[in-house]
Amino acid sequence: MNLLTVENLTVTLATGSGDAQAVRNLSFNVGHGEILGVAGESGSGKTMTALSMLGLLPYKGKASGSIKFDGREILTSSKREYRDLRGKEIAMIFQDPMTSLHPMLTVEVQLTEHLRHHRKVSKDAARNSALELLATVKIPEPAAALRAHPSQFSGGMRQRIAIAMALACEPKLLIADEPTTALDVTVQAGILKLLHQLRKERNLSVMVITHDLGVLSSLTDRIMIMYAGSEVESGLTTDLLRNPRHPYTKGLIAALPGNSASNSKNLLSIDGMPPELGNFPTGCAFHTRCNYAKESCKGAIPEVTNLNSTHRIFCPINPFSEVTSAGSQS
Amino acid sequence: MKPVSGERKTRKRPLSGTGFTPFIIRRLLTSILLVFGVTFISFSITQLVPGDPVAANLGQSAYSDPEIVAAFEKEFGLDQPVPVQYYRYITNLLQGDLGVSLSSKRPVAEDLKEYFPATLEIALVAVFLALIVGLLLGIISAVTRDRWPDQIIRVFSLTGVSMPAFWTALTAFYIFFFVLGWAPGTGRLEPGGEPPPTVTGLFTIDALIKGDFQTFRQAFSYLLLPAIVLAIYAVGVLTRFTRASMLEILGNDYVRAARAKGLPEFTVIRRHVLRPALLSIITVAGVAFASLLAGSVLVENVFSWPGLGQYAYRAAVGLDLPGIMGVSMIVATVYITMNLLVDILYRIIDPQMKDSA
Ligand SMILES: Nc1ncnc2c1ncn2[C@@H]1O[C@H](COP(=O)(O)OP(=O)(O)OP(=O)(O)O)[C@@H](O)[C@H]1O
Ligand code: SF4
Ligand SMILES: [Mg+2]
After folding, report:
1. Which of B252, B261, B346 best tests the A interface by mutation, with the highest count of A CBs <10 A?
2. Under a CB-based contact definition with an 8 Å cutoff, are residues B271 and A112 in contact?
3. Which one, A99, B163, B199, B258, has the greatest CB density within 10 A?
């Protein structure tokens, strides 16, 4: 059984011009020890999907559908049940390490406060765990780092501290929202290696959100591509990157210069702009930018097409169905 | 990792370090300079204001007698050129001599020693009340954002900041004295009441020092209503500001990160929200205290409270230059001390902060 099973997740946010759905009917799952990548342009609802898992949507945001974690429905949890889940079972690393660490609290406080709360351990025991965690994420001089404030560290080091924070209570699921953006390439590689290693050592399940093809190809087992709050395609990383079948995914990948797996250019290079929240086009939301769009695409919301047991697309037109995987990229 | 600021440097040149003590010494020196700046400005202003202090202080017939006028001018040094008057004022000031009041004919320092503690006493109680109530209401308001406790508190705090002080004072006096009879009346003690021996000039404290609980209770009951009235405006300001800065901090990524750790909401608020919010709240509290001194002029008049506000009013009407200067000195010193306190509190709350003084 999967660790996380999400069904028909819809997230409604309050905007200046009324309520709008930032995530629409999203279904996906993450297996034990699996790394799922979630990709899509800015505003496609990746962060809102992640926040739904923790019940931490922005003010006046609402989620509906079903989220099963470890066999238990959690979307209907009380505040208290959510608190017992957060940090302890599901931990999250936020998009920006420069703003997600508290500027006035020492690293020690931030690394140990939830450990002490959830596990009821003593201050000394918590400090020892914190030292181990800092060593795990390869922070030099852990003892000195404990006494320091976040401002004394570089972006890459802060991201490592954020990862250590997330790991403190040994969660089963780690959600990493853009863990490598804003970091330079060598630092990125270090963080990716670290996540890989953690998965292997702790059988940790990871949901990693990213714009970055390099991260997707080298880190993830499976990928889900999102557009305007919905899934457009998902499949095993190798299948999806070599043989993208949805026009959107295809466009994203084809637009990459060189197209090699080590390339770390952003996925964002398709003509036109992604639609804004509250203004998602009808039918297949991608029809305003799609070269293969037919009249029917504007009407009905696309049904799923299963290409094999793991690979599926949400495009009934399926324009590349005859093309084999080899030589389909130009 | 950047090294933490060097202590060695601090030892060599005590005033340039970033440590706590050099910081305080430097801030104290600038504060003293500021006080002198204030004496110069207020002296200049009193010279520029039209009006003849001699005419204001001598009766009609005395003013028409040149001999009396000359004697008056000589006695108070008004016959000297202005720079000489200022020079004399400053040199005397350094010896604790603030000159002789034109209206009370007593040394200004003596007057201030009598009037200032009265104001300080209600102001301190008012600030204490305002801080506790304002912070508490502001926090409740932010945490229950848009729900009923927040709605109610917002109405109250808006009322608090929009009511003119003299109107609140009169209404409160009318209701609690005439209608309900809860307030004891005007002044600092009941008529004929014996003030405790002066140590600080604050009747409540002095009574406690002497161990006279009866006088303490009496003095406290007399000061409570004016102090509450004085606090109302500051409560309104602090409540609104606390709410606003809490909401701003609540929107930060690091608060969401704290919640994502599963900490109890109380811990999130206390540890992650309140501390950064306090930084800006403290600044406003300093300003609120200053505005409270201004409000004391009106409140003291309504409650016949023999404080600095009443003294300032009389000095201003009587064009009593030494009196006005004395009051300005006190008010400026209070302002500057408040600023100093705010800066020090800043450093205590956020020790990483580099001061820019
Ligand atoms: N607090 C909020 N209130 C209302 N709308 C919001 C709020 N936060 C985000 N949104 C909107 O919700 C939509 C989805 O946002 P989300 O952060 O999930 O996108 P994302 O895929 O993570 O994008 P990015 O790659 O830029 O992080 C966006 O249109 C965004 O503007
Ligand atoms: S459903 Fe139509 S518009 Fe949408 S991706 Fe397929 S072809 Fe393009
Ligand atoms: Mg995001």
Report:
1. B261
2. no
3. B258
Residues of A in contact with B267 (CB under 8 A): 113, 117
Compute the distance between CA of residue B349 and CA of residue A172 in angstroms, rounded to an integer. 36
**Which protein residue's CA is at the shortest distance from atom 27 of ligand 1?**
A42
A243-284 per-position pLDDT tens digit: 999 999 988 887 665 554 434 444 444 678 889 998 899 999
Number of A to B CB contacts under 8 A, please give it: 85
Chain A residue numbers touching B354 (CB-CB < 8 A):
none
User: Which pLDDT value is given to residue B195?
Assistant: 83
Does pLDDT of A188 surpass 60? yes
**What's the CA gap between B237 and B292, in Å, rounded?**
11
- Reduce the DSSP state of residue B59 to 3 states and report it: coil
Domain ranges in chain A?
A: 97-170
B349: pLDDT confidence band, cut at 50, 70 and 90? Answer: confident
Nearest CA in chain B to A109: B271
pLDDT tens digits for range A23-65? 999 999 999 999 999 999 889 999 999 999 999 999 889 999 9
How confident is the model over B279-307, as pLDDT tens digits?
A: 888 888 888 877 787 788 888 888 888 89
Among A265, A242, A258, residue whose Cα is nearest residue A320: A242
Residues in chain B: 357
Q: Which residue has the tokens 């999130």?
A: B268
Q: Which residues of A touch B254 (CB under 8 A)?
A: 99-103
Which residue matches tokens 């702790």?
Answer: A202
Within an 8 Å CB–CB cutoff, is residue A114 touching chain B?
A: yes
- Contact (CB, 8 A) for B238 and B130: yes
Residue of chain A whose alpha carbon sits nearest to that of B265: A83
Q: B307-342 pLDDT, tens per residue? A: 998 898 888 888 888 888 888 888 888 888 888 888
| pLDDT digits 0-9 by tens, A189-208 | 888 888 888 888 889 999 99
The mean per-residue pLDDT over the stretch B142-160 comes to 93
ipTM: 0.87
Q: What is the pLDDT of residue B16?
A: 58
- HSE (side-chain half, CA atoms, 13 Å) at A301: 10
Q: How confident is the model at residue B11 (pLDDT cuts 50, 70, 90)?
A: very low
Q: In whole angstroms, what is the distance from residue B252 CA to residue B250 CA? A: 5
Give the contacts of B265 (CB within 8 A, at least 6 positions apart).
A79, B143, B259
- What is each CA distance from A180 to A185, A187, A190, B149, in whole angstroms? 9, 8, 10, 42
**Among A249, A125, A119, A128, which Cα is nearest to A171's?**
A119
Domain ranges of chain B: 2-94, 108-317
Closest CA to B229 of B282, B299, B333: B299
Q: What is the mean pLDDT of residues B81-102?
A: 81
Any B CB within 8 A of A135 CB: no
CATH architecture entry for B108-317? Orthogonal Bundle (1.10)
Beta pairing, strands A205-210 & A173-177: parallel
Measured CA angle at B292 (ends B288, B295), to 5 deg: 140
Integer angstrom CA distances of residue B143 from A264, B136, B147, B223, B266: 43, 11, 9, 33, 10
Tell me how far apart the alpha carbons of residues B341 and B289 are, in angstroms, rounded to a whole number: 12
> End-to-end distance of chain A based on CA atoms, in angstroms?
39
